[in-house]
Amino acid sequence: MQVLFLNRLNDEWLQKMEQMKNKYPHVSFKTRQDGTLDDLLRSAHVIVTGRLSAEHIHKAENLRLIIVPMAGVNALDWHAIREKKIEVCNCHSNAFAVAERAIALALALLGRVVEYDRDLRYGVWHGYAVRGGEQDYWTSLQRKRVCIVGFGHIGQNLARLLEPFSCEIVAVKRSAPKVKDRVTSDLDWAIETSDVIFITLPLTKETKNLFNRERLFKMKGKFLINVSRGELLDEEALFESLSDGVLAGAAIDTWYVYPSSEKECVLPSRFPFNTLRNVVMSPHVGGYCPEASRGLMNETFEILEKYILTGELTNRVDPEWEY
């Protein structure tokens, strides 16, 4: 068996690989540095990566399994995967960190923390010190009705973190009955009756543009926190709903435009979200902390080791639902 690592590898990853080489001498562990990409792909049985094109999948003629060292699997070519009947597993060990980041973003947004920080740096005060009126109020998260759209690993961690705030939580889950209850598949009812909406869904062909113009413009006075993928929300409609004052505010960690090797400094959207005072912007770093990164690495090797020993799969991704 040959295992090919195409993900970013730091010293911890390389040390883990050496341990696996010593433990399983009959398995070949390769990285990009061990040959041409075409040759490595052709001989790989398992590939560890978060991104793989149809061209690369078809070149990997012996490929049986892709292990994604993170939760998101939307950067894989699923048509080619289904065609070649390749198995895919992913990792969820960063869910606690993404949930924590979502709480931080919510508190910053409702508490107007970033907005007031920016003003005070230029000597502009708000609140008691300048006899500010109600326009200077911030909003408490305590006892708010909260909708969590997507109740997987991140959503469940988020619900636990919200417990001390005495929030009333309604979770939206595809497999739940369409009833008006704590767990429901009725997205529109859940949004309509909530004050704060967290989006923790995977990006699939079903969830892309789920928050379209019609849905966003019904969210008058609500706060939105997105830690999933930008493409779940209509980009132009999201900007307009915020600039027109329909949404009370949004905290956004996942975007529409990302840096590239050719252009590292880039705004995250075609629309000027950076000019809006009711937006908290975060550069897709929900799980970007040492604890989460180490957890994802360990989980990747646990999935790989179980597959080497037993052929069994952990965290298998459904190729039809793509999550």
Automatic annotation (TrEMBL):
Oxidoreductase in keyword set: yes
Key word Cell wall biogenesis/degradation present: no
Gene Ontology cellular component annotations, sorted alphabetically: cytosol
Residues covered by the D-isomer specific 2-hydroxyacid dehydrogenase catalytic domain: 3-317
Record key words, sorted: NAD, Oxidoreductase
Gene Ontology terms for molecular function: glyoxylate reductase (NADPH) activity; hydroxypyruvate reductase [NAD(P)H] activity; NAD binding
InterPro entries: D-isomer_2-hydroxyacid_DH (IPR050223), D-isomer_2_OHA_DH_cat_dom (IPR006139), D-isomer_DH_NAD-bd (IPR006140), NAD(P)-bd_dom_sf (IPR036291)
Ranges of residues in domain D-isomer specific 2-hydroxyacid dehydrogenase NAD-binding: 103-286
Similarity comment: family membership: Belongs to the D-isomer specific 2-hydroxyacid dehydrogenase family.
The protein, known as: 2-hydroxyacid dehydrogenase
UniProt organism field: Pseudothermotoga hypogea DSM 11164 = NBRC 106472
Taxonomic lineage of the native organism: Bacteria, Thermotogati, Thermotogota, Thermotogae, Thermotogales
